[in-house]
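so i finally got all the pieces together for this one. its two components total, 976 residues if u count the protein bits. some of the lines might not be protein, just check the labels. i wanna see the whole assembly predicted at once instead of chain by chain like last time, that was a mess tbh
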Amino acid sequence: MTCDIVPLLPLGIVGFGAIILMLLAAFEKIHLEVAAVFSMGVFALAFVMQLLPAGPDNLAPYTALFHGMLVTNEFTKVAALIILACGFFTAMSSTSYFRLNSFCTLEFYCLMIFATFGMLLLTMAHELITVFISLEIVSLSIYVLVGYNRKSVTSAEAVLKYLMLGAFAGAFFTMGAALIYGAVKSTGFEAIASFIAAKGLVQSPALLAGVFFILFALMFKIAAFPFHAWVVDVYDGASVPVTGFMATALKTAIFAVLANFLILDVGLKDFWLDGLFYITVFTLFAGNLIAIGQNSLKRMLAASGIVHTGYLLIAVIAVSSNTISGHIILFYLAAYAASTLGIFAALSYLGGKDEQRSTFDDFKGLAKVRPYSAAAITIFLLSMAGIPPTAGFMGKLYIITTAFQAGQTTLAVLGIVSSILSMWYYLRLIISMYFHEATDPFEIVGSPFAPVCTLILAACVFAISLFPIAI
Amino acid sequence: MFEHVLSTMIFLPILVGLVLLLLPASQGAARGTGLVASGIILILGIRLYFGFSGAGGMEFSEIRDLLPSLGISYNLGVDGISLFVLLTGAVLYPLVFLVMTNQSKGCYANLLITQGAMAGAICAGDLVLFYIFWELMLLPIFFMIGIYGGPKRLPATIKIMLYTVAGSLLMLAAIIYLGVVYHTQFGEWSFSAAKLAGLELHGGAAVLAFTGFMLAFAIKIPLFPLHTWLPDAYTEAPPATTFVLSAIMAKIGVYAVIRYVIPTFEAEFARYALLLACSGVIGMIYCGIAAIGQKDIKRLLAFSSASHMGILALGVFCMNIQALTGTIFQIVAHATSTGVLFLFAGMLEERMQTRNIEELGGIARQAPIFAFFFAVALLASVGLPGTSGFIGEFLIILGAVKFHTAIGVLAGTTLIIGVCYMLWMFQRVFFEKTNDRTAGFKDLTGIEALAFLPVILLILIMGIYPQPFIAKIEPAAKEQIAFVRPAAQVANYPVLEKGHVPEQK
C-alpha cells in the first residue's frame, strides 16, 4: 500500500502547487512572472517525478490504485508526461505574451495548474465518477481561462459558447454514467468490461444508451464531427497561451480517456467501429474544409486541430486490443503537441500588443525580418503537414501503418488524401512569411522566454521523430 | 572515409547548406563554399566511378538499422543504373557554382541541400528512406522558386508544390501498404527495396499501390497529362534552379520507376506499359509542338525538356534491354545537354535582360565560343549523330520498335519536331541581324569556357565512343529487366494482350 503513493506523487505535486499558488495569489504577495516561474517549477518537478521508476518492488507495468478507481500504466505515464510538458511550455511562453497583454492576474497560473491537475487525474481515471469529477475540474478551469480577457468581445463570445456546449456535454456524460450504473451496478471500468464480456453490449438498452452518451460527451471534447463547430470560435476567442494549452494538453487527456474507455472490451469497440469510421472521415474532411477557408491564423490552427483529431481517431480505430498500439496515439499526440505549442509560443511573442497580428497577411515577410522565428514556424508547419524528417511525419507513418495493418485501407488512403488537402493552408503561411516583402518591423518586446521556448520545441520536433516506438 | 562515401556525398552538401543558411555569409563566400563542397563531391564521384566494378548488384553498400521496430533501415548502395544518375549530378553541380555568379546566398545554400537530398534519393535502398529524401529534395526547390523566382513565381510555386506533394503522399500510402503486406507475408517488418521486390502482389490493391507510385513519378518526370506544372515552374525559377530541376530532378523520376516500380510491380508494370508508353509518346509530340510556338527562350527549353522526358519515359516502358540501356544513357546525355542549355539561357537572360527570342539575334557574331558551345549542346539535345543524344535516342527508338512497331515508328518520326523548334530558335537567337541589345554581348570568359569545356567534351565523347558507359550500364539494366520478363510470361494473365508482351529473344 505504501508504494501506491509513488505513482500519485506527480499528481500530488501539481495539486499542492496549485493550492499554494492560490493562497499566495490571495495575498497578492508575488509578482506575475514569479508565479509563471513557480508554475514552470511545479510542472518540471512533476515531470521529473513522473519519469522516475515507480520504486524497486513495484515494477508491475499496471497498477490499480484505490480499488481500481485510478490506474497507472505506461500509457497513462506517457500521457501525463505530455500534459506536464504542455503545461510547462505554456507557462513559459505566456510570460512573453503577458508583457504585451495586460489582462493577466495571478489566478491565471493557478487555474492552469488546476486544469493540469484535472488532466493528470483524467488520464488515470478508471471509474466513471472519477472521470466526471476530473473532467469538471479541467472544464471549469478552462472556461475561466478562455474568458480571461474580460474586455474582449470575442473572448466573451468564446466562453459563452464553450460554457453552454460544455455544460451539455457534461450533462450527457453524467446521464451516461447513471444509465451505465443502472445496468451494471458499478461505475468501475473493470466491472463494465466484465459485464459486457459476459452479457454483451446490446442486451441491455440502458448500457447501450449510457455508452452512447459518454462517447458523445468525449467526442464533443475532442471536437470530432459533428461536434466540432465550437472549436473555431472558442480557439479564436481565447488568448494565445490558453488556445495552445487547450489544443494540446486537453486533447491529450481526453484521448487518453477515450482510449482507456474504448479498449475496455473488444465488443465495445467493434460495436462502434462503423460509426467511428464515418465520424473519422467526416472529421478529417470537415476540418480541412473549414481550415482552407480561414484567414486568421488562430482559426486555421483551430480547424487544423479538428483534422488532427481525425488522424488520432484513425489510430483509435486501428488500436487493437494489445496495449502497444496505444503508443502510436501518444506518439502522434506528442508530435502534434510539440508543433502546435511551438506555433502558439511563436505567436505569443510575434502577435504583438492585443494580438494585433492575427491573419496570414499580417505575417507577410516575417522571414526577411526575423529569419529564425520564421524558420521555426516553418518547421512546426511542416511537422503538422507531415513532411519528413519531422515528428509529424513519423506520427503519420505510424498511424497509416497501423491503419493498413488493421485492415482499414480506406481510412488510411483517406487520411493521406486529407493531408494533401491540408498542405494548402500550411503552405499558405509559409508563402506569406517567405515570398513577400516585409512591411512590418515585427519588433519584439518582452521576455526572452517565448523565443527560447520556440527554439526548444523546434528541437523537440526533430528529437521526437528519432524516438522509436514498437508497433 | 571511403567506406562511407555515399553518406558523405549525401550529408556533406546538406550540412554545408544548412550552415550557410544559418550563418550570415556574403554572397561570394556562399558561392565559394558551394564550389568547394560540390568540387569535393565531384572528386568522390570520380573515385566512385573508378572504384565501381560493374559486375552487377549493389556496391558501396551501407546498411544500418534506423528504426528496427518498423524495419526501416539506413540502406544505401549504387548499381550501374544509380551510378550514372548520381554522377550526372556530381559532374554538373560545380558548373552551377562556377557560372551562376549573381544568385543570392540562400539560393546557393538551397542548391547544396538539394544536391545532398537528390543523392540520397538516388542511393536509397529503403523505401521510407527514399521517401524522406524525395520530399527533402523538393523543399529547397519550393523556397528557391518562391523567394528568388520571377514575377509570376507565386502561382508557379503553389502549382509545383501541390502537384508533387499530392503525388508523393499517395506514394507514401503505397509504400506503407507494401510494408504491411510484407509484414503479413513474411512475418517481419521491412521496407528494403530488395526485399519488397519479392512480394507477391495481386488484385485491385496492387493496382492501386502501383498507381500511387506511378503518380508520384509521373508528376516528377513529368508524364503527359501531368506536365502542366512544368512550364510555369521552369520559367519562373531562377536559372540555377531550372537547371537542377530539368537536368537532375526530372531524371530521378525516371530512375525511380526503374529502381522501385519495375522490381516490385512487375505484373502491373507489364500490364500498363503500353498505356504509359503511349502517354510518353503523346507528351513528346505535344510538348514538342508547344515548344515551336514559344516566344520565351526559357519556356521553349522547358517544353523541349518535357518533350524529351517523354522519350525517356517511353524507353522505360518498352521493357526490353535496348530501351532500358538507352534510357539510362539518355538520362546522362539529356542531363548534360539540357542542363548546359538552361545554364546558357540563364546567362543570356542575365546579360541581355530579356528572354524574348524576338529581341535577340546575331549573337554568333558577337560571341563565337558561346554560340559554338550552345550549338553542340543543342545538337546533342536533338540527337544529331556524333553527339551523346543520338546514342540514347537511337537505343530507345530501337527498343520501342521491338516493343510495339507503331509506337516506335511514331516516336522515331516525330523526333524531327525537336529539330524544328531548336534550329529555328538557334537561327533567331544566334544568326539574323544584331540589334542594339545584342551588340554588346560579351563572349564567355576564359574561366567560363574552361568550366563548360569538360561537359561539352563529355557530350562529344559519349556520342563518338559510348562503349565504356554502356558496358557499365548493361549488367544492371539486365538485372532490372530480368524482373519484368517472368511476369510477362505468366500465362493467362487477365488483361494482358498481345501487344503488351515484349518479344522474346
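Confidence is low (pLDDT under 50) at residues 490-505 of chain B.
The longest helix of chain B spans residues 153-186.
anyway lmk what u think
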